[in-house]
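To: structure desk
From: M.T.
Subject: fold request, one chain
Message: Could you run this one when you get a chance? Sequence is below, nothing fancy, just the single chain.
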Amino acid sequence: MPVYEYLGLNPSGKTLKGIIDADNAAVARQKLRGDGIFPVDVKETTSKVKGIQNDSASFFRRVRPKDVYAFTRQLSTLLGAGVPLVASLDALLSQSSNQILKKIIAQVKESVNQGNSLASALSQHPKTFSNLYVNMVHSGESSGSLDVVLERLAEFGENQQALRGRFKAALAYPLFMSLIGILVLFFLITFIVPNITKVFVEMHHTLPLPTLILINVSNFMLSFWWVFVLILIGLIVIVKRAIKRPKFHYIWDKIKLRLPVFGTINQKIALAQFARALGSLIQSGVPLLSSMQIVRNIVNNALIAGVIDNAIEEIREGKSLAGTLSKSPWFSSMAVQMISIGEQSGQLEGMLNKIADNNEREVESSIIALTSMLEPIMILAMGVVVGFVVISILLPIFEMNQMIR
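Reply: Done. C-alpha cells follow.
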C-alpha cells in the first residue's frame, strides 16, 4: 500500500503534517476527512524513503539511535500486550515525531502487509536497522518470541547509548576547558604580548633569552596564525581519508589499542561491545557462528575483527570459543575464563552479559579517574605557559631597574 505525506488543517485552522497509508491519493484524502482533517496537499512518499536516508542534505534530520530503540521498546510493549504486528506499527506510525522514521515505519508496515516478514522489511533500511538488529528480529519471528527479542534489542541499544553518553559527558568538561585555555593563550600571545614587548624593542636594549623567544613566537603567531589553522584542517582531512583505506585503518586501530591509558579504555569498550552483542544474539536464538559473523561487522576495530575471523575458523574446526580467544592479547584472561565457564555450563550468553557489565563499569571508572587527572594537568600546563609569559615580561623590567640604580 502506498504511503502519503499530507499537509492539512484541523477544524480550528491549525496546520498539521503527517504520514498516512492508502490505496491512492483520493482514498488518502477521504481518510483524512474522516479523521476531521481538511487536506491541503497529499503526495506519495514511499519511493523516496531510501533517497532521503542517503541524501547528505538530511544529515541533521537522520534517524537517531535513541529514536530507533524507543520505537523498538514501544513495539515490544504493544506485541507483548497482544496487539497484532500491523496494528502495532500503525499505532507507532501516528506517535513518532521523527518524519524520516515515520516514513520508514510506513514502508515497513506496507511491506509486512504484502506478506513479507518484519525482518525482511527492516533489512530494506540498513542505515537505520543494523545487521544485528535484523538478525535478532528474524530469530524472534522464527521462535515466536518477537516481543522478548525486541525488548532485549531495546536494552542492548540503550546500554550502548548510555555508555557512549557517559564517555562523552566525562570528557566534555576537560575538552571544553582545554579549548578555552588554548584560545585564551592564543589571544594573549598574539594580541596582548606584542603591545607590551613593543616598548622593550623600541629601547634597543639587549633583552633576555626568554623575552626574545616570547617576542619571536608572538610575531610569528601574529603573522602566520592562519598557517596553524590550515595545518590543523589539513591533518584532519588527511587522517579521515587515510583511515578509510584498510592498511591505514588497521594501523589507526592498532594505535588506539596501544595508547597509554586510552588504549586500555578502548580495549575494554571493544570487549564490552563484543560481549554484549554476542550475548544478545545467542540469547535470541541465533547460532554461534552466525552471531560471530554479525558481531565481527559491528565491532569498530580491525584488530578485534581479525581475532573474531580467526575464532570463526577455529570454531568450525571444532575448537572452543574460549580457546581461540585466549590466543589474542586483546581479550583479558578474566574474560576468556568466564567464557570458558559459560561454555562448560551451557550459560554462555549469561557469562557474556556479565563480561559486558564488568567492562562497562570499568570503563566508567577509568573515565572518571582520567578526567580527575586531566584537570590538574591542564591547570599545570596553563600555569607553566602563563608563568613563562610573565617571567619573559618581568625580566627586562628588573634589568632596567638595576641599570637605573
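Reply (cont.): Confidence is low (pLDDT under 50) at residues 46-60. Let me know if you need anything else for the meeting.
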